Amino acid sequence: MTAAAGPLVFAHRGASADLPEHTLVAYERALADGADGLECDVRLTRDGHLVCVHDRRLDRTSTGRGLVSARTLAELDQYDFGSWHPGARGAVERVPVLTLDRLVRTVLDGARPVRLLIETKHPSRYGSDVERRLVALLSRYGLTRPGPRDQVRVTVMSFSPLALRRIQALAPRLPTVLLLEVVPPGIRLRRLPFGARVGGPAVDLVRARPAIVEALRSGGNGIYVWTVNEPADIDLVIGHGVDGIITDRPRAVLDRLGR
Ligand code: G3P
Ligand code: CA
Question: Is residue 250 assigned to a domain?
Answer without folding.
Answer: yes
